[in-house]
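WARN no homologs supplied; continuing
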Amino acid sequence: MNKKDDARQYLLDYFAQADKLNGTIEEMEQLRKSNAPKQEQLDEKVQEYEQRLDNLNSGKIKMNQSLKELGFDKPIAKFSQEDLIRLSEILEP
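OK structure emitted
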């Protein structure tokens, strides 16, 4: 694969992991809101959350490195309109 394909894959993986993490957070909140959540269930969700967060952080590092190789020198949150347009071109199939 080339650098652009690598960056696309890291971006897609990162956002998929973020979505899974959000799902885990929602499940944890539902458990906490239930009348009497079992500590075992909460502990299991906390472990799942920690694993997903680790995966997300690892993916962010890979994603940022691959984007730097393509000339993106700042975090996604600080991208300009021009940067976002360039990023959308990378995400096109």
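The radius of gyration is 17 Å.
OK
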